[in-house]
Each structure stands twice: as structure tokens, then as C-alpha cells.
Amino acid sequence: MAFTIKVNGNTRTVDVDGDTPLLWVLRDVLGMTGTKFGCGRALCGACTVHIDGVATRSCVTSIDSIGKSKVTTIEAIGATPAGAKVQKAWLEHEVVQCGYCQSGQIMSAAALLASNPHPTDADIDEAMSGNVCRCGTYVRIREAIKLAAQADERGG
Amino acid sequence: MVVDRIASRACLSRRTFLATSAAAGGGLMLNLSLPLGRSEAAPSESFVPNAFIRVGSDGQVVLTMPYVEMGQGTYTSIPMLIAEELDVSLKQVRLEHAPPNEKLYANPMLGVQATGNSNAVRGAWKPLREAGAAARFMLVAAAARRWNVDPASCRVQNGEVIHVPTSRRLKYGELAADAARMPVPKNVALKQPGDFKLIGTPAKRLDAAGKVNGAAVYGIDARPQGVKFATLAQSPVFGGRVRSIDDTAAKAVKAVRQIVRLDDAVAVVADHMGAAKKGLAALKIEWDDGPHARLTTEEIARELDQATLGSGAVAQNIGDADKAMAGAASKVEATYQVPFLAHAAMEPMNCTVHFRKDECEIWIGSQAVARVQAMAAKAAGLPPEKVIVHNHLIGGGFGRRLEADGAVRAVEIAKHIDGPVKVVWTREEDIQHDMYRPYWFDRISAGLDDKGRPVAWKNRFAGSSVIARWLPPAFKDGLDPDSTEGAIDLVYDLPNFHVEYVRVEPPGIPTAFWRSVGPSHNVFVTESFIDEMAAAAKQDAVAYRRSLLDRSPRAKAVLDLAAEKAGWGQTLPKGSGRGVSLQFVFGSYLAQVAEVEVSQEGAVRVRRVVCAVDCGIAVNPDTVQAQIQSAIIFGITAALHGEITLKDGRVQQSNFDDYQMLRMNEAPAIEVHIVRNSEPPGGMGECGTSAIVPAVANAIFAATGKRLRKMPVDAATLKQLG
Known about the structure:
heterodimer, A: alpha+beta, Ubiquitin-like (UB roll), 2 domains, 5-stranded mixed sheet, globular, B: alpha+beta, Aldehyde Oxidoreductase, domain 4, 3 domains, 20 helices, 28 strands, 30% helix
């Protein structure tokens, strides 16, 4: 059946089964490939998007569960204050390697900073441990989140 | 296409180092020839073209990259070599993926077109700088002729030639057409390390921007017009076949278009992956498990164990180890084992294929694009030149994408489909149909004199030779350079030394290169065993190693540096310990000190890792640091969690719940200290992985007194002794 969802401020209608994971609607039906497939079982975080600002694993979120909620993906996260700061800090600290998991990492980090502008190490562990990085960029992710939080402190 | 045109001509100039031609746009084009490394595939006197530089009339430098970016930073460090000698900013260099062409783009250290074995910078170091320097020489010559002045009165700076006495300037773009007509210099002077502006200075990655906003395109993101989406189930036992399928329910799933039955796999094709997965779940498949239906890992381990009791090919012999062993005051003996490991790159295996009547088009992220072309052509029943391969950024390689099995599988499926199809493996398929780091079994012994100093070393190990399958000419007389790296040519002064390798190919499980390859196994064994010898001699682990390093000053220097920075010798709380490792592999010297904490329950937490590295000139020091951080996490993941096991011929692990990755909350603090010198660069992509595993095992020994000779770490064993 047809579902109408709001993605990055745009209204999109798709005709898929109600149990279709949002991930495949984004990637295959809508052609938004920034959100990545990693495990299909909410074990790695590569597919993380925001649903009403909350970091959510799109690989286990069915299209019929979204309703009127706002979906934000990596393609638009730079338009949010937290997302922009995180992206800037990521570049500043040269976080990325292969980069495949980084869409999900950035979405998790942006959600963390939007709700908790000054996270402790424990907060970072809590928010980021669902996101696997096989290149092992964790040391730099932690530094970059702290840098982004400082940017907030300095008003910028 | 410029590349193809030059490619065919370049093949003719076997002994030419550089040849030029006017490029389509009137620019300067250098055809760069790289001498092949020692390889059976080509005689050593032959020169095979490998990469291209093009300076356009707009001043842009285009580098056709023979190496692929999979996170290791090669898209930044290789352009730095060109940019350094040309004296242009990195921003002025644009990259193009090299197309498949073994003749042009063979890796000089492997003899085939591949990115692996930590050798991109090592292979490119001299020839790419020479190419940049030759281009600079010709641009200067062109400017000097135009001004009618002596070239020696000109210099280059930031993409311009400057006539020093008159301060006249010409941009490279303005000179490109003239430069193309200048003679190619036979010998060009390269910059001295002291004059480097880019090399040795941290450079920003050229591929970063698209990786933080979702714009970067990996193989899995390819979307040719009209593409369908497929996922598959392959025989759960390697070597099994499909006996029967019932696809009634699968075909009833909305958006499922087609079921493709192959001999040993079934694929479901749909309008999107969600429907393909749902269709696959609804598909009933009966398998004929074939000859390996009862295979277990234990059976393989027993076979390898047995093999180490026989004899093998002698990898290295120094002195008379048997005689020295017989006369030793004491003896240390052990067996070591390391498990099969999956790659688990974050980007699951995938390949998009459009099979047409007389040609085949492929979209993939591959470390070995010419291999993909050759094997896909075979599967397609087409000549290689009818297979077009588009390479992409790689979402993690680690050796998995040196293999072309995924492309072959996708071609087999695409042959049944009208239009392009993207075949994406589920994570379960990715882990259960990987090609695995081999299981290895080592039988090792040492003789010590009455002061505890080694007088004899014997090691015989058994396992699969990946090289024998992947690059057959390099497997010779029972040996290959990968299986033995890290087991021979040790940094230590070991007077009577004998190492044998027994090639055993386990049935029913394919093996492949895995980050840090041969050393991933060998360094764990040798560095754990040196630690055992130090303990037997009742000596400090660092001091013991140090006493054996008189002929290896660079190794001694990194060991000293790591020990000093780690606070070696300082007291740690009960249940914690420090372990050290030292290696010279991939052309780089590395020492690591790991600090671990072992809980009452036997859980191991790596708190801190200090690494000292001497990789010669660090082309991009920030990448060196990043690769060590990365490789350490990769190695700790293996040491603490990594194990693929077989039961009833089936891989028992399937996803990140039972094949676990190290996560943020488990990541240690990592310090990297880089030794500065002017030695040629060593490899950096993998050496951090082989070094960390023994450092962790040795730290666990320091913390608990328990020597772990089998990976991964078994918490139950540590608990029992706690």
C-alpha cells in the first residue's frame, strides 16, 4: 500500500508493504544512498537516521510505524545546528577512514549533542556504542564530539 | 578515451621510463612506467606502464590512481608524492580511478593490479616522485624556451614557473602544451628530504568531505537506470548444492520479480532490498550438503597439529638449531593456535551487474579490479575486454575485496535477468560465506643457555597458503613470502634458527588475505614466545628483547621509545598488566605496549596502548597515526572477540551479535609516537594489527600469570585461574 512520509522536509509517497524497513525505502525506493546498510538487525548503527530528532535504526523501523513523524537523514543533518557542528568537527579531526559507517556515527553524535550539549565520556560511550566502526575511528570520534561540544560553548 | 588510447601504445615501450604525448586537450601527459617488483609473472628487466599524470591547460593535475581508497588514506598520500615534486598544492591534484589493466596498473610490489600488503606508498615512492620531477623539468624547459633564458635561472613554486632574475611567471596550465613537446629527461634530480614541503607534514584527506554528508558513492550505492535489487542464500555448507526449492510463498511477496536458482545458491530479485529479503525469508530451500556436511573446526585443528609433527619446507635456517638445542641449558616449548577470522567490512559484499548479449557492465568496490574483470569475464563467457568495470570507494577492504567471488556470483545471477541487478549480501551471508583468515597451528621451541640467553629457535607451523591460490607463481618450493613474513628474518639476534612451513589446505572452508596477513599469525606466535623465553629466563620482557637487538638499532629505538612513553616498569594495580611486542614487517618497525585490566570473571579490558613506529619517512603523519589507531582496534577486536567456527560444515557465527566488533565503550586510549628519519617509507595499513595481539596476550600474562597460546582470549580460562 501507499505510505506518505516526511523526509528532510519533503513529503514522499511510496508504495511498499507496511513492514518494509525505512532503510530500503530511503536507499532503494527514494534513491537516498547516504544512509547505509550494515547488519539489518540494529546491531551496528550504520543505518541510523533521526525520527523526530531521535537516533533510530532504520533497518528495523517499518515504514508503517512512522506516521507523521519527521525523518532526517545524513543528507540533511548539516542543516541542523548540532549536525553542522558534528560534521565540522569530523573534518577538523580527520575522523573518517573508509567512511562507510560515518553517516550513522554522525547521526548518533548529532542526536547526542542536540539533547546533551556537554556529554561526558560515559555519555559518549552510552550514545555511540551502538555504532560499529570497523576502521576503528573511535579515538577520533570521541575527540570530535568533544570538539563539537566546545564549539557550542564558544557559541559557534 | 584518453586512458585506453595511451594504454595500448604504452604497452609497446617496454624499456621506456617516460614517454610523452600531447593530450586531447593540448596538455602535457606523462606516461609513467613502474618497474615490476621481483615476480615470476614478469621478467625483472621489463618495465610495465602503471599510472598517468596529466597536466591540463587549466593547470589541473590529474592522477589516474592505480591504488584504491578503502580508508587507508592512499587517495591523499599518493597525490602528495606527485604534488611534492611538481610543487603544486594538493588541491590542484584530481584523481581518477584506474580502469582494469594489469599491464598498465600492476602494483610494482605484487606484479598484479591490486591494493594490498601495505605497499602502495612503498611501491609508488620513487616512481611517482620521479614522474612529478620529470613533469616539473619539462614545464621549466618549456618556460625557459618561451622566455629564451637558461632553465637554470628558473624555479617552480605553487604551480608556476618563475624566471628568477626578471620575476616573470607562467602558470603550469599555460605551459602544458609546450611542455608536452619537450624531451623527457633521462635522469631527474629528486628533492632532498630536507626540502620537502608536503611530504612529512600532516595533510587533510582528499576524500573526507563526501564521507561526512552522505555524498560519497560506494559500490553498494551504484544505481544504474532501471536497477533491480537481489539478495541470496548460498549453500550453508561449502561445496553443497541446491536440492530443491519451493518458491510459491516467495513469489507472492509484493515487489518480488524473479527467483534465480543456481547450482549452489538461490537469489530473490525485487524492486527493493526489503522485498528481496522478505522473499528470501519466504523461500523454502532444501540443500544437499555435499562432502563437508560434518566438518568441524576441531577436526581442522587436529589435522594442522598433526602436520606440525612431520616436516615442512624450510623457510629459514641459520646455524644448527638441532645441535644447539641439544646442548642448551634449558628448553622452552609451546604450541600456538589462531582461529579462522571473517573480514566483516562494514559495507557488506555487493556487486551490480548489467549482463547484455555481448557485453557485461559491473559496478563494484574492489581492491583488485583487473581480477574482477578477468573472473567476471570467465563467468559471463565473454572476453575480458567486453567486461566494463566501474570501481568505487570501498566501505572496508581488509583483504576481502582482493577476491572476485562476489562479482562472479553477481554475474551468475545477472545472466538470468533482463536489465541491471544489484546483488547485496545480507550480513549473515557476508559472514557465513566469507573467505577466511586461515587457522594456523605452530609448534615452537627454544633452547636457552645458563644465563637464559637463546641459543636455538625452532618453529614449524601449518596452515593454508592464500598466495598459492591467489598468486600461484609466488608459491615456490612449498613456501610463499606471505605465510612466512614475521616468522623469519626476525629483528632479534638468534644464532641457531630453523623455521619450517607445512602447507595444509583445510577442506570445506575457503581462505583469503586478512588485514596484516601472514604477520597476523606469525607475530602473535613469535612475540608471545619471546615473552615466554624472557619469563623462563626470569628477565624483564623489554630488557630481554633489548639484549637481543644489537644488530637492529631501529628496532631497539622503537622498543625504547614505546617502553619509555608507556611508563614500562611502573607499578599497576592488581589485576592489571603491561605487555610489549616488537616487529619488523611490511617494511616498518613497530613496538607496542598494551595495558590491560582483567576482572575477577576473566573479562579483559584493554585500557591503553602506546605505539612507537619507525616507518621511515612518514608521507602523511596524520594517516600514519590514523592507521595505527585503526589497526590496533582491528587487532584487539580479533584478540578479544574474533573466532569463526564450523559445526556440521556450517559457519556458526552470523552477525555482529555473535561475531562481535570492538565498540566505543571498549576502545582504549591510543598514543602513537613516530620516529623521524629519512629512510624510505614502510607500509602502515596493517602493521598495527599484528603487533597488538601479542602485546595484549603478554599483558594478560603480566596481569594474571596465565599464558594464552590460543586466540581469541578465553575469559573462562582466565576466570578459573583468577
